[in-house]
TrEMBL record, chain A:
Residues 2-77 form the Carrier domain. GO terms for biological process: Kdo2-lipid A biosynthetic process; lipid A biosynthetic process. It is found in: Cytoplasm. GO terms for molecular function: acyl binding; acyl carrier activity. Belongs to the acyl carrier protein (ACP) family. PROSITE patterns: CARRIER, PHOSPHOPANTETHEINE. Pathway: Lipid metabolism; fatty acid biosynthesis; Glycolipid biosynthesis; KDO(2)-lipid A biosynthesis. The gene is acpP. Keywords: Cytoplasm, Fatty acid biosynthesis, Fatty acid metabolism, Lipid biosynthesis, Lipid metabolism, Phosphopantetheine, Phosphoprotein. It comes from Aquisalinus flavus. Its main location: cytoplasm. This is Acyl carrier protein.
TrEMBL record, chain B:
The lineage of its organism: Bacteria, Pseudomonadati, Pseudomonadota, Alphaproteobacteria, Parvularculales. Transmembrane segments: none annotated. Pfam families: adh_short_C2. It comes from Aquisalinus flavus. It is an enzyme of class 1 (oxidoreductase). This is 3-oxoacyl-[acyl-carrier-protein] reductase.
């Protein structure tokens, strides 16, 4: 797993208080990890802080799984 | 009951009668307070009076960039921000038909938009901490209306609507959002009324007198306390029975 994937996983586990084993790339934040809409907003803010990037609202809407988050950050974390 | 030791609070409009009383009451319960307003020398006077656990943060609330920065400055000064009291407000009274656009815009910007900006800038820290108290000082006028104050009444009603919506969004995060709605309170603003005007007002208040800034401050202390953790989206009316909702 890349460094970015590890950090995304760590933030997700901490924030949603879920078992690390469940946080795999295809896991949906809402359907599999029990997040609500406010959790998503908070997660996106946490990713922005961790990786020092801006995630605009329309991009945030496309981030539904852990893998989506990793892919977006890998692409935009120049 | 109502112990605020270890809590940090930002009070805007702390140079006014009600704002000063709120800062004093929160401080007396043990909170560390950041006091904000436009008149720095008045804030420094209050700081001297209160002694320890006080930070002065002058801010002009009509400058929205300065408003955005204010909660961050409070966190810098105090290490955190648990309690936001949005108390600053202005009036530009005018009969509706003669009200100028800038009289409308100024009041909405300073009373309502600044509340929105302040609350927004506080939320991230409060959500992380799973604790927060956001309290807007609105007015009875926001609920009952008042001839000559369409702009002020709209801004105060807007604060109530915003608070209720934000309360619903943040309830699961331990953040409560409430309003306190003063009726007629004895301050510099009401001192300017004539005796005849005052008598007319007393006739409408079952308690037969104006309230004091301390009456408002006590309501704020309650809503800021741990004991009020299950109270959110409410407007606490403190008006001597003038309006009962």
């Amino acid at each position: 797993m890349s460094d970015i994937a590890e950090r995304v996983k760590k933030i997700t586990v901490e924030h949603l208080d879920v078992d690390a084993a469940k946080v795999e790339p295809k896991a949906s934040f809402i359907d599999d990890l029990g997040a609500d809409s406010l959790d998503i907003v908070e997660l996106v803010m946490a990713f922005e802080e961790e990786f020092d990037i801006e995630i605009p609202d329309d991009a945030a809407e496309t981030i539904q799984t852990v893998g989506d988050a990793i892919a977006y950050i890998e692409k935009n974390n120049a | 009951m109502f112990d605020l030791t270890g809590k940090t609070a930002l009070v805007t409009g702390a140079t006014g009668g009600i704002g000063g009383a709120i800062a004093t009451a929160l401080h007396a319960r043990g909170a560390t307070v950041a006091i904000s307003g436009t008149r720095a020398e008045k804030l420094e006077g209050l700081e001297k009076e209160l002694g320890e656990r006080v930070h002065v943060l002058p801010c002009n609330l009509s400058d929205l960039e300065a408003v955005d920065a204010l909660p961050g400055q409070a966190v810098e000064a105090m290490g955190s921000l648990d309690i936001l009291i949005s108390n600053a407000g202005v009036t530009r009274d005018q009969i509706f038909m003669r009200m100028k656009e800038d009289e409308w815009d100024d009041v909405l910007r300073i009373n309502l938009t600044a509340y929105h900006r302040l609350a927004k800038a506080c939320l991230r820290g409060m959500a992380k901490k799973r604790f927060g108290r956001i309290i807007g000082i609105t007015s009875v006028v926001g609920v009952m209306g008042n001839a000559g104050q369409a702009n002020y009444a709209a801004s105060k009603a807007g604060m109530i609507g915003m608070s209720k919506s934000l309360a619903q969004e943040m309830a699961t995060r331990g953040i409560t959002v409430n309003c306190v709605a003063p009726g007629f309170i004895a301050t510099a603003m009401t001192d300017a009324l004539s005796d005849q005007q005052k008598e007319a007002i007393y006739g409408k208040i079952p308690a037969g007198k104006m309230g004091t800034p301390e009456d408002i401050a006590s309501a704020v202390v309650y809503l800021a306390s741990d004991e009020a953790g299950y109270v959110t989206g409410q407007t606490l009316h403190v008006n001597g029975g003038m309006v009962m909702i």
